[in-house]
Structure formats: C-alpha cells, structure tokens
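ok trying this again, last paste got cut off
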Amino acid sequence: MHQDNFFECLNAQFQDALPFVAYRKPNESRVNAVFQNEDRLYETTDLSESGFVFSPFDDTSKMILMPLKHSELEFCDAFEGEGLMSANSELKSTSEQKAEYMGAIEKALLAIDETDLKKVVLSRPDYVSNENFQVFEVFKRLLSNYKTAFVYCWYHPKIGLWLGATPETLLTIEGQRMSTMALAGTQLYKGSTDVSWGTKEQEEQQFVTDYIVSNLEAEVEHVSASERRTVRAGGLLHLQTQISARLRKGHSGLLEIVRALHPTPAVCGLPKVEAKAFILEHEGYNREFYSGFMGELHFKKRQTRNTNRRNVENNVYATVKSVTNLYVNLRCMQVLANKVALYVGGGITKDSNPEAEWEETVSKTSTMKNIL
C-alpha cells in the first residue's frame, strides 16, 4: 500500500474508534498494521493465540490481544520522512518531581545496603501538554528518527493511545530458535559510539546478562552470548549483549519462557521478586503498559529452501514457521485527556549517584520531548 493511503487507513480506523496497531521492526523499512474489525477488548492468558499482544509491567494484570482472526493486516513497503535535528535540549522537569524521584532513589540505596536487593529500576512519568497533538505526525517523527528501534502506535478505545520507539527486544522465536538481549546503561550520543563506560554501567549490564542466561536454562539449550557492545537508540547509547539459544524438546511453552524474562532486570531489578515488590510499594504511580511488552504473537512466515525463484521445483519444499517478536515497552508515551505522559527510568545499584540518576532520566525524556 502506498504511504499516503496507509496513513489514511490508520486515520480512518482511529476516527471510527476501532482498535489498531501500526509498527516497524528494528532496521526494517516496512511499516505494518493490524486493524481489528470491532471494538471488543480481547485478552490472552497463555499467549497461545495469533495476534498482536500488549502487556503491562505487572505480570498479574491482563494482557491485551488484537487477534489475527478478528483483524485485517496491511503494510506500506517503505516509509519516507524527514528526521529531526539532534538537539540534546536541556529540558528540566519540576523540582517537585525531582524531589520525589530522589527520595525514592535514597530508599532504594538503603534497601540495597540492608537487604539482598542488588538492583532496582525506578521510573517516573513526565507530563507535557497535548495541545495540538497530532497522533500520526508524532508517529511519523518516531519512524524518521528511530531506525534501529521498534516503533509503534497502539490504540484501543477501551484502553487508550500509546506511542513509542523502544531499543529493547524481549524475545524472538522462529521455529525452535530463540534470541533475546541484555540491555543496560545509558549515556547521550555525541556523534560516536566509541565511548567509555563506568563500573556501575558495566556491572549493571552484566547483572542483566547473567540473569537472562540463568532463568532460561530450564527451557532452552545451546545458549550463546555475544561480546558486550555499545548501541545507539536515537540520541542515546546503551550497552547490549545478544543472547541466542535453541528451545528444549518438551519445553513448557511460550508463557513460561516469557515469565522467565519479564519483567527484565533492565526494567525491574534483581532479584526480580524483591525488586518488583519495592517498585510497587515505593514508585508512587501505576506504570500500566510502560515497561511491559508487546509484539507479534505466532505470526506465520513462509520460508523456501531455494533462493533462486526460477527453480520452481525446489520451491515446492517451502515450510511455514511460527514467528513471535516481542519488545519491551520503553521510550514511550501515553496520550491522556489533557496531557501526554512520557515514561522514563533508570537502574539503581549500590554505586548509583542520585543526582546522576536524575540527570539520566532528564536526558531520556528530552529525546522524546524533541519529537513532540
């Protein structure tokens, strides 16, 4: 579908108050869309269905599904738009927000010192006016500026409107192969990815890698982890390790694999149970879908053994694989009645400096404020 027609369809679905999600996967040009045929709110309890899933941070809450059997799929082959100038703006939040966040950090540092808690990820909302907010113009800016991220616009009339550009993959499964990533550490991009990382960021990233590998052992085999590397996500840099494995025969299923990973140490902390309990008690607000996960659930992918299209005989042996692509909902915004909530957080460890942690969240929100 041509780009103009694609966005006209999105706008028509939105005006009709019908659920949809439009998204582009990392390093791809094609923008996909799932248009649900009715406004019913579907849920999944075991991730066994085919569709687009949108799940909250709290894994005891409902996971929302746009089922493929009640939806139409569309796409445009390539999106063409103009990127924004990098503008590392010095946008600041209110002193009240800062005081609340710094207070939570101090409580976290005390808990880390006195308990077995090693890391806790504390987040906060930052609000801006939604006056003259144009949904699809913002979505286009996200597409233009975050080529290596999972960029999305998700809407359900009974839930609300969310947009974002996340750098973190939760899980990819194709057939019996799976991959995920460990992502931690943040600093501003200043023209190069050849940067130095402090002890705090390196240890934090290793926490995440070790946790993922350990939690997956019961469900997978032949686990391998790449060397740690610096990756860019818009105006920010992160540390990343790629992890791949093969699903064990007789593994417990997708839900158990997701539970082994979500919420990840990058959005929750370590140990997970203690960190999540601390967040729910001390963060002071409901994250909802921020730091949850979303993506394609059991989509079908046709694959041929032969790459020469003229060799029709071998193309008969094509196989159809089930593919799942899930992403952690970071760098996102929620459009509310009279404001837009931008969500941002940072990992707190024994080496954290409260002022530096605050400034890191300011850097993260400024990249999204530039989009707006």
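PB: full thing came through this time. Helices lie at 3-15, 95-114, 135-145, 199-216, 254-261, 272-282, 312-315, 354-371.
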